[in-house]
Amino acid sequence: MSEVFRGGGTLSGDRMAIPVPVLIAGSAVIATRVLSVLLLANELGYEEVMNFIHRSAQSWDSTLIFIASQLIFFLELRCAIAMIRGRNWGRWTFLATQVVVLLYMMVATLTGIYPEIFSISGEDNVRIISSLIAQKLPDMLVLLLVFVPVSSRHYYR
Description:
By secondary structure, the protein is mainly alpha-helical. The protein has one domain (19-145). It has 6 helices and no strands. The chain is globular and about 50 Å long. It comes from Pantoea coffeiphila.
């Protein structure tokens, strides 16, 4: 760590320093995903988490949705680490996961597909869609941080 203070900001002179928008975006993805799982588990409690897992294992379609949600969670974490390390596939894969999640949440909300945890309640479709967009706003900001700034685009070349 002392090399960072003596050298002026990077640990190795061969690699380009991580741009601040990329570092913030990757850290934000990791922090929001881990905190959301912890807060959800705290809100539901042990019994409800076990009931949710048990209900998800009742049929093939709900089991596949549950497994897919876990895979997307871990894929998003992997993408965040890849984005911080300068892997171009990380930001594109994160974009793809956000599109898939947004589409599935819209379908689950508007058609009432199980499980309820992936749907949003609302009075009409306009309010539901605006609430869904508001929930995905932080992820859109992360995508802007890794795609828009010039320093971020140069980092992924």
